[in-house]
Hints:
Structural class: alpha/beta
Order of helices and strands: EHEHEEHEHEEHEHEHE
Oligomer: single chain
Number of helices: 7
Distance between the termini: 14 Å
Strand content: 15-25%
CATH topology: Rossmann fold
Bound molecules: 2-amino-2-deoxy-6-O-phosphono-alpha-D-glucopyranose
Number of strands: 10
Largest sheet: 7 strands, parallel
Amino acid sequence: MEVVIVPDAKAGGELIAEAIADLVRRKPEALLGVATGSTPLPVYEALAGTVRSGGVDVSRARICQLDEYVGLPAGHPESYRSVVLREVVEPLGLGEDAFMGPDGTAADVQAACEAYDRALSEAGGVDLQLLGIGTDGHIGFNEPCSSLASRTRIKTLTQQTREDNARFFDSLEEVPHHVITQGIGTILEARHLVLLATGEGKADAVAQSVEGPVSALVPASALQLHPHATVVVDEAAASKL
Ligand code: GLP
């Protein structure tokens, strides 16, 4: 695992955007796994800037989603599908046909999870998966105690994660209890994992993930098992390393 400490979130965003641009220059049809939350936004802004200035042609790249809320109506502005289309797909000048995600509105959620795992494999697998980290060390929505071999499946959010994500909704009550997430085993199949963490609030989770034992109690520690994992942290998130 490579740990890169950058001065701030903007620098982290630029570094990762350049890594993504490099990948797409080598492999124009790359499948890019993206994450939601506030942390990766500087990556998407920097990458969209590079695209606008002609630094990379992403027109053949494909974008796939890490996780999704269950039960939000289609088109809800905070469904991760809506967020990824708004924050990533559209700014990169791509269309919905370049996007894949699990169906959080499916009547049969289990079948939707299995279908998404299959779709990722059939698309050739994820070339680069960008990850954030929860304050409890979760990746995607794999909360502590998730199996390190897990596949895409339905999970129940912890109260902590619902509270952390309540800022995107009008009230805590509106935050769904259930989600679909790529499993840790699914995430580990991506060819390159890039985790970005910024801010003091992530310092404990980063230290446990990078320097602690590999444990289902800290899902991001599974990155230690991956042959090509990069952890990009700002000074604040690195403060407990
Ligand atoms: C959610 C997402 C994760 C993300 C986490 C942290 O739980 N499912 O993928 O990493 O939030 O979000 P933020 O970057 O806003 O702290």
